[in-house]
Write a structure and sequence with these properties.
The chain has 8 helices and 19 strands. By secondary structure, the chain is an alpha/beta fold. It has 2 domains: 218 residues, FAD/NAD(P)-binding domain; 111 residues, FAD/NAD(P)-binding domain, CATH 3.50.50.60. Strand 15 and strand 16 form a beta hairpin. It is elongated, with a radius of gyration of 23 Å. The chain starts with a helix and ends with a helix. Bound molecules: flavin-adenine dinucleotide.
């Protein structure tokens, strides 16, 4: 390893140049495994590079570890890898060099060459003891275990932000993981309420309107956040009614009501209450990294994102992060997540 280069990276970095990184550098990597402090491993699983999250960023990190010939393990809470790619049912049109590809094809590329025995599916990481370099997990069988690591790569992505109102668990109420392009046709002739005013909310409203649905878009603030591409088209579409400054307070089921669901809301400037009978509600108010379990020992921004330096290092020794979890909402894209996953893994293995 090029020691000058390593020192220059550490010195350049505002994030990773903290005391821990300088006074307790990790020992160099060997192809036979990563050296590090002794960690009790009795009865515990162990990985040199432990990757939390099997979305595009985590898979790219794993592919990179595979290429570098180091031992790694992915822990993924879902029953299969792919992250948000599993929710994507339209062509990916902004992936340079692969424009028009499907999410399934991209996922196949990312998984290609990964060994299944290095995947822990259905395991959720719930906490960590970073001093002893281990994380706590709940396995798919509901067991609580710990896994020790030499380097930890957090590729936890983002998950739909819940609307803070009662009724989210009613049948017909969906979050941002619900694919409207896949299900739009089922809503032909029906009424759907979309909560949110960003790109995905307005894009979803247009998809539903084109499939013959009547759509109400309820947006809390005084303007839509969506790009004109979606916002202007939605405003011009007679099947889409946009209500700004409108705050949802509850969703309830009412026997006999048209469609069976009622969305209750009020108009902020006037206080006027509205009730909208509908067949379905789709909440698309944004996504946040699921980083609650990291608060208290790792820097976490108020919006849940994890600060890293340009090389994917957090302030904590041996802990790296990548993908949607480190990027504000406007920058969350596949190509970014995959590139960051590769870089975080290369930094973890080759730099410190
Ligand atoms: C419908 C839709 C369409 C999209 N279309 C495009 C597009 O056309 N072009 C584009 O560039 N981007 C698109 N995106 C965005 C893109 O999918 C994301 O930027 C990308 O998936 C981010 O990858 P990631 O690995 O960082 O996070 P994610 O894909 O969110 O993966 C994170 C993974 O970590 C797991 N995880 C989280 N916490 C834990 C834990 N504690 N323990 C274990 N596992 C955990 C999650 O289960 C998840 O599988 C789209 C997103 C959606 C939802």
């Amino acid at each position: 390893m090029d020691t000058d280069w390593t020192h220059r990276l550490l010195a350049d970095s505002s994030i990773a140049g903290g005391t821990a990184a300088v006074t307790d550098p990790l020992r160099p990597v060997t192809r036979d495994g990563l050296d590090g402090p002794d960690v009790p491993v009795d009865g515990m699983d162990r990985a040199d590079i432990l990757i939390v999250g099997g979305g595009p960023a985590g898979l790219a990190a794993a592919r990179t570890c595979e290429g570098l010939g180091v031992n790694y393990q992915i822990i993924e809470a879902a029953p299969e890898v792919g992250g948000q790619l599993l929710w994507t049912h339209t062509a990916i049109d902004d992936y340079l060099g692969l424009s028009g590809t499907s999410a399934t094809a991209l996922l196949d590329h990312l998984k290609d060459g990964l060994k299944p025995d290095w995947l822990r599916l259905g395991w959720r990481v719930t906490g960590a003891d970073p001093e002893r370099r281990r994380v706590f997990v709940t396995t798919s069988a509901g067991e609580r275990r710990s896994v020790s690591y030499q380097r930890l790569i957090l590729a936890i992505g983002a998950r739909p932000r819940p609307l803070p109102v009662p009724g989210l668990d009613l049948p017909g109420v969906h979050d941002a993981s619900f694919s409207l392009s896949r299900h739009a046709i089922e809503f032909a002739g029906r009424t759907v309420v979309i909560v949110g005013g960003g790109d995905r909310a307005l894009e979803g409203a247009l998809t539903l309107a084109r499939a013959g649905a009547r759509v109400h878009v309820l947006q809390r603030s005084a303007r839509l956040r969506a790009r004109p591409l979606f916002a202007d088209a939605a405003m011009a579409n007679r099947s889409v009614q946009v209500a700004l400054d409108t705050v949802v307070t509850a969703i309830r089921c009412e026997v006999g009501a048209a469609g069976g669901l009622i969305v209750e809301a009020f108009h902020q400037p006037t206080g006027q209450e509205v009730q909208i009978p509908c067949d379905a509600v789709v909440v698309r108010i944004g996504m946040d990294p699921p980083s609650e379990w990291l608060r208290g020992w790792l820097d976490v921004e108020p919006d849940g994102t994890l600060p890293v330096d340009g090389w994917g290092r957090t302030r904590h020794l041996a802990v790296y992060a990548c993908g949607d979890a480190v990027v504000p909402a406007f920058g969350r894209r596949l190509q970014t997540a995959i590139g960051q996953g590769m870089l975080a893994a290369r930094t973890a293995v080759m730099v410190r």
